[in-house]
Amino acid sequence: MLALAAASCSKSSDDDATLSDNCYISAFTLGQMQRSVSTTTAAGNDTTYTVAYSGSAFPMTIDQRAQTITMATPLLMNTHLDAVLTTVTFTGALVHAPENDTTTWATYSTTDSVDFTTPRIYRVVSTDGKSHRDYRVWLTTRSTLADTYTWQRSETAMPQVQMIAIDWALTDEITDNYQIMAELYYVQRNGNTRLMLACRRNGADATEPLAIWSRLLHDSDPWTRFDIAPDNPYGLVAPGQLALVSYDNYLMAFVAGSRTIYVSHDNGITWKTDSNLSIPSDINLTADDGTPLPMSAMAMGATIWLAVGSDVWTLCSNSYGEQ
User: Fold this and answer.
1) What CATH code would you report for 2-137?
2) Domain ranges of the chain
3) What is the pTM of this model?
């Protein structure tokens, strides 16, 4: 392939010049990417925030014959393409310019963000300056969210993890007025450690959304209850046993006996179902008499472990980097 690259470099001025093999790109990798995520507040208002993810999970394919650099898999939905960092491995001198304005070349630097809202031309110039090679580079984004999740039955038990002693410092308001359905200790995307309780108010109907109590793991931080507005349909409804996990930058709630999985992107304020994410039909959720089987869940790395009765399953997101 490198020999092909050398042979196909074009002369820039002197027809009698010896073609140099120092004008090709051998690797092209995306850096940290930014994307917009939309959610709904407890008051029912739409809001948008920005999250980061690694572009290296999305390999770029170099076609030396066609002189193109393309994506094997599109980037995540709503990724910002106006300021992208790249790491390029090349031999020679490298410059780039928008495809529609190749009269303005910029010298390549790993610290410079590049606008990829339109395709770009990356030009590698040989060390003797007598030949060059142009690559057309463009990025694409997905128009939908993740659509593939892999469930597998595990032949082993759920991993054993070391328990951390935590002083939850529950208040009388919580212990006197609520039944704790599930608890979660996790690290937010900003690095803060948070404690969360999913509670049923004493005397509440099983169809009423659970109350979410939350606080940062600091002695001076108080417990805060996330109230659900009456007209907000995004509460967490769990008639029975509940299992919570923190998976990358969001929370997931599994409800015993239900194939519905709730997802929260705002630390438990609102919970929404995901049409692409539910417990498949080949996982048995109930006993012979129809009662829900005991359920527990935990997240470790890019894998979620789900125990239903005596069966253990693992869940991984697709290869597009959404995990």
Assistant:
1) 2.60.40
2) 2-137, 149-317
3) 0.56
